Amino acid sequence: MIPRYSRPQMASIWEPEAKFRIWFEIEAHALDKMAENGVVPMEAAKAVWEKGAFEVDRIDAIEAEVKHDVIAFLTNVAEHVGPEARFLHQGMTSSDVLDTCLAVQLKQAADLLIQDLDELLEVLKRRAFEHKLTPTIGRSHGIHAEPVTFGLKLTQAYAEFSRNRARLIAARDDVATCAISGAVGTFANIDPSVEAHVAEKMRLTVEPVSTQVIPRDRHAMFFATLGVIASSVERLATEIRHLQRTEVLEAEEYFSPGQKGSSAMPHKRNPVLAENLTGLARMVRSYVTPALENVALWHERDISHSSVERYIGPDATVTLDFALARLTGVMDKLVVYPERMQKNLDRMGGLVHSQRVLLALTQAGASREDAYRLVQRNATKVWDSDGELSLMELLKADPEVSALLSDDEIEERFDLGYHFKHVGTIFERVFG
Predict the structure, then answer these.
(1) 392: helix, strand or coil
(2) CA distances for 368 relative to 215, 306, 381, 406, angstroms
(3) Of 93, 91, 63, 20, which Cα lies nearest the Cα of 301?
(4) Taking the C-alpha atoms of 212, 218, 222 and 225 in order, what is their torsion angle to the nearest 10 degrees?
(5) Residues with Cβ within 8 Å of residue 203, at least 6 apart in sequence
(6) 141 an active-site residue?
(7) Closest residue by Cα to residue 241 from 255, 233, 253
(8) Are residues 138 and 341 in contact, defined by beta-carbon separation less than 8 angstroms?
């Protein structure tokens, strides 16, 4: 985790103190159920809760000698509990603790990410309605296509992040499982009721069948979902970067008083936050492939996944948390220039209305091939003039076109509002 791209609440989930606290709770809850089942003395379970404690530095020191983190933890707890600590970890294996703990951490992280998405969605909805009917040019291949509204652009982003929210909820629920099943998952030395009890206390579901580990397809889906969300972040960030280009300048990141854009050029106002989001998205996606490769472990378990998850668990969730918060801030303060949008719409002499003329000519009796030829030959003149000529006027002056359409009929096909008659329908579909 890099402090520059970390927020405290998410980062705290992955701190050693938080991890060992979860380990302690798993062990203590398991011991409670073993005591209830008569496997260990009830006094032992009480002693663990009353006297149980740990110190991160002491665990690290023990691990340096024994080379095993769970044994180091149990040894440190035993130093506080005393003789009753011998009943801890009865019939359990290290993965029972490690995997159940990771499930708790990923669930906690997902809950924060869902909150992040909710905040982003709220901003996107507000800005979408603000610009519901703000005309702008739609582009395909980076080239002017037909008119849209800026509100529709934001509505599309809202719908995409709504889908991501649903995906994340599903991924959170899928990864939040508990395994307390022993060395190879057979419950040979521990009763399944212990697993059920720990799952309930830790607010997880029972893993139906584990080997020595929780199956890593669950984790792969979780991190893949984070990668998809990161891609959505990048998609919106890339749109902002394009709109802020000097030649476009339809919207730009808020530039605060005193902010500097360049060490060399005082005039510069760069889309640095959106560019940063593009980079952060690349990092989150980079953790997806290792998560997928973790699925194929040897037999009942190996630890090739362990080092991977020590990286990607904290880094992917912390980075995405930061990115979502940053994107929310960008969209909340995004400066929008409707006049520039209109100027860009008008820049190419009405070419954006070419399809309407094409359809009108076919309805007036021209074949589609002839209609396309008539519109394209006039559109080419406008294109070559860099928008200095008017498509409407050229069409009126074209005898083949005027033989089929009157001047009024041609002018009607250049009505900007025509393109927005179903904006309300789209908003209703998305926002209800």
Answers:
(1) helix
(2) 58, 63, 20, 19
(3) 93
(4) 150
(5) 104, 107, 176
(6) yes
(7) 253
(8) no
Closest Cα to residue 361, out of 391, 322, 401, 334? 401
Output the CA–CA distances (angstroms, integers) from residue 115 to 105, 112, 163, 165, 325, in the order listed.
Answer: 16, 5, 14, 9, 10
Residues 6+ apart with CB under 8 A from 215: 207, 295
Is 188 exposed, middle or buried, given 0-12, 13-18 or 19+ CB atoms closer than 10 A? exposed
Q: DSSP secondary-structure letter at 418?
A: G
Tens digits of pLDDT across the chain (432 residues): 789 999 999 999 999 999 999 999 999 999 999 999 999 999 999 999 999 999 999 999 999 999 999 999 999 999 999 999 999 999 999 999 999 999 999 999 999 999 999 999 999 999 999 999 999 999 999 999 999 999 999 999 999 999 999 999 999 999 999 999 999 999 999 999 999 999 999 999 999 999 999 999 999 999 999 999 999 999 999 999 999 999 999 999 999 999 999 999 999 999 999 999 999 999 999 999 999 999 999 999 999 899 999 999 999 999 999 999 999 999 999 999 999 999 999 999 999 999 999 999 999 999 999 999 999 999 999 999 999 999 999 999 999 999 999 999 999 999 999 999 999 999 999 999
Set 140, 141, 256, 267: catalytic member = 141
Q: Which two tokens stand for residue 155?
A: 């509505």
C-alpha span between 228 and 234 (Å, rounded): 10
Query: Of the residues 262, 304, 307, 367, which is catalytic?
Result: 262
> Active-site residue 267, yes or no?
no
Cα 226 to Cα 109, 122, 301, distances in angstroms: 11, 20, 25
**Are 320 and 112 a contacting pair, CB within 8 Å?**
no
Q: Say if CB 207 and CB 179 are below 8 A apart.
A: yes
Backbone angles phi, psi at 395, to 5 degrees: -65, -40
Q: Which two tokens stand for residue 181?
A: 């099943």
Q: Which of 110, 114, 227, 230 is nearest to 172 (CA)?
A: 110
Beta-carbon-side half-sphere exposure of residue 350 (alpha carbons within 13 Å): 20
The residues, ordered by sequence, that sit 6+ positions from 174 with a Cβ below 8 Å of its Cβ are 218, 221, 222
Rounded distance between C-alpha atoms, residue 160 and residue 166, angstroms: 10
